[in-house]
Design goal:
Oligomer: homodimer
CATH topology of the largest domain in chain A: Rossmann fold
Number of strands of chain A: 20
Structural class of chain A: alpha/beta
Helix content of chain A: 25-40%
Shape of chain A: elongated
Number of domains of chain A: 3
Radius of gyration of chain A: 26 Å
Largest interface: A-B, 86 and 86 residues
Chain lengths: 460, 460
């Protein structure tokens, strides 16, 4: 994978002289992105492209080339791949669509391409791919612009939608591999690279179809001990599976079988779009959860009820508080207030103010041996007039950075975005958009812990 | 309800001389909000409050008073209610907590309060409530600040969380009634008011427990013919029901029985927090959907697969396109491209540009008799460089304002917020945060149509 992710020299075959808006010029995008390798545009009709000397053919470059990127009409691709192989190129990305994702002729062309590469020890990524993004060396083969953060998130996908839509899908991305039709480089090679990469702390996977299942499961089992692997498998339905066949040419296989096999290997498995972003947030910022007993702290009774409902749905339970915890809160509350879990702190808040009461409650349940995880419902008030209802700073003060219990939150009020940022600033509390998502993230952290427990038992 | 929603004269009992941040001074909030009624602060220790002449008792005002708002420690509430009744007040809001939501003594106090009111033809809202918000006459009894739009959304709830968190819960709110413990004014009175109010186009309800079930169902059946009623019922779980008892003192009852009875009456029923906002958006902006056959238009094959999966989960199906529709798209696509539903337009986009192709596709499926609703997946590109990938204006041009088919969307890319606003500007296309939510909203519009169909059959 090194020649794909960190090439020293790159030939760009089929690069147009057009650039600017609407040209989808991947060389232009690569240059904007801040690449540091040597690049050789290949175009028989151009002397130079974007100020870089062009060559009529990859054979004419006369230099060792790590990576060739082929972006030509499909009928010209095979010859270009063969030429690249002859020229000693070590790795090839085929961007072009219309192979196993299309018709019988496309399938045959793809097979010929693979045969040519395999006979010569050359690897192919694609076809039907945006290729690579590597924010750690500012290299990309995408013709669409991407964000540039050095996030510890490794993304493996079968569609450029997840590169372009990274902010929607994973929220952040440090390195990405779009395996497209996966004619040669597939999930195994990509996962192995991400798994062994010390810059990457979590691997997020969009999967349409999985081949080499046994190899993948063994690999996933090994890597999941070091870092979480999260899979969003599409083609769950009959209609979806049919659509997958004509997208990346993948056989979606039987969803439930995939699901149980992957979960067995320690993979965290998602059911719906929108979950990956929450999963990444939770797993990067919160510890695995050692049990299923949750403390709910809330300035609203109605929110406490909603939390109770959704925790039960997620297979979690309300922690039975220790006497010490109850005593600490009782000291702040009016006598008539029934105290329990969910812990409705509003009557105490009316007496002593939200900040102190909230911090005291969080401190109490962090210290309570009956509690495995904490769900905080909070107010996101108008600022600056109602800043006294923003508990973010006070809660952050009592939550230690190193700890065994996840602390997640949900906010209601007119200022949810800003108060969320204040809560998350110290990477101790992670805030979600709904109570359902917050509870779901706790169940995911529980699952992550179970996976690590199983591993350590197997090693014991 | 008129005395609660549009009072001409209001006594505020138990109003503190403290004001400003942290005082929760409801009179101050009422004044900031822009009230237009007469107000009479009642406080035996003050000559005036916030510049308004104060009275020692409600009896001393010597004027007809529509509404009294009582915010006193719970042991003083009953006497104050009785005094208000004696003074001829027509409606009373009890803000104070600690009644049926607390202990046996609280329950007894609440019952005495109700008895006193009923014997004298006075109505009580609460206790344990923020009361009223009415953005159409700028009146509120909430001590927390609220947004002020004249939105056509009527909210009925059992907790102030939904007033304060309206932007999170319903997204918008025009009028709101927090029935709190619902000792007298309950869901029936509130629903009747919202149902008959021409300013209100949709009624959003947060429900912990429902009494007078039969009356409510009859009323809901009548009102649902005119406008959608959406219920989010909490206390679904055993733990949640227990928490509800100690919140508003409500008996949550059996969730599944409530659910089927309410649905039978034509109410749209939600399962999770976060759905109300999407429901309101969909029902306000899109027509009921006449059937379950959906056209998916997508510039990404992977997105099409995700859409197929989630439509099936929502009980919808992929429309079998007419030959005419296929022909119109085939004219734009390369020969090798398999055409169907989901309709992957990317190969056509590479030839003719996204804007024209997207508009042509939407126009074709709008015209297709085999299609009942349209799900558009779109790109939210970097601006201004990639503005040519923003199809919002072109799609809005081909979607008529009056139509029978809902058009919903989902966006991926770095600029989702701005492109969403562009799509939604003309209130023709409604964009959701995930494909799942977009598909869910279509199923809700289908349900809304079924409810109207049933009604018209009954009337036939």
């Amino acid at each position: 994978m090194k020649y794909f992710m960190e090439p020293k020299s790159v030939a760009i075959i089929g690069i147009s002289r057009k650039s600017g808006p609407g040209s989808y010029n991947l060389m232009e995008n690569m240059m904007n992105y801040g690449y540091t390798c040597e690049i050789f545009p290949i175009n028989p009709k151009a002397k130079d492209i974007l100020g870089v000397k062009a060559y009529p053919s990859v054979k004419d470059v006369g230099r060792a080339i790590d990576l060739a990127i082929v972006s030509l009409p499909r009928d010209l691709v095979l010859d270009s791949v063969k030429e690249s192989i002859d020229a000693g190129v070590k790795a090839i990305i085929v961007v072009t669509q219309g192979f196993a994702d299309a018709d019988a002729r496309g399938k045959a062309l793809q097979q010929e391409m693979v045969n040519a590469a395999r006979n010569n020890g050359v690897r192919i990524l694609g076809p039907n791919t945006l290729g690579i993004v590597n924010n750690f060396n500012r290299f990309t083969t995408s013709f669409m612009p991407l964000t540039r953060e050095k996030a510890p998130v490794g993304l493996i996908c079968q569609s450029g939608i997840f590169f372009v839509g990274a902010s929607v899908f994973t929220g952040q991305i440090g390195k990405g591999i779009d395996i497209g039709n996966a004619c040669d480089i597939g999930f195994c090679e990509a996962l192995e690279y991400m798994g062994d990469d010390p810059e990457i702390k979590i691997v997020a996977i969009h999967m349409e179809g999985l081949e080499q299942t046994r190899r993948f499961l063994t690999l996933a089992g090994r890597i999941a001990k070091q870092k979480p692997i999260v899979v969003f498998k599409t083609g769950q339905s009959e209609a979806g599976a049919k659509a997958a066949a004509s997208h990346s040419g993948a056989m979606a296989g039987h969803y439930q079988i995939h699901k149980s096999a992957l979960k067995q290997a320690g993979v965290l498995f998602l059911d719906a779009d929108g979950q990956m972003r929450d999963a990444v947030k939770a797993l990067l910022n919160q510890p695995p959860m050692k049990g299923g007993r949750i403390a709910v702290i809330t300035p609203t009774g109605a929110g406490g009820i909603m939390a109770s409902d959704t925790l039960e749905k997620q297979g979690l339970e309300l922690a039975p508080f220790s006497e010490k915890t109850i005593r600490r809160i009782a000291n702040l509350s009016p006598e008539w207030m029934p105290l329990g879990n969910p812990l409705d702190i509003w009557p105490a808040v009316m007496r002593y103010g939200l900040k102190d009461v909230y911090a005291e409650a969080v401190d109490a349940v962090l210290d309570d041996p009956n509690v495995d995880g904490i769900l905080c419902l909070g107010i996101a008030p108008e600022l600056p007039d109602f800043a006294f209802l923003d508990a973010s700073e006070d809660v952050n003060k009592v939550v230690p950075k190193e700890r065994q219990k996840p602390v997640v939150g949900w906010l209601y009020g007119p200022n949810a975005r800003e108060i969320r940022e204040r809560f998350e600033k110290e990477e101790k509390v992670t805030v979600f958009q709904t109570i359902e998502k917050a509870a779901w993230s706790l169940s995911l952290l529980r699952e992550r812990d179970k996976c690590l427990e199983k591993t350590s038992e197997q090693n014991a």
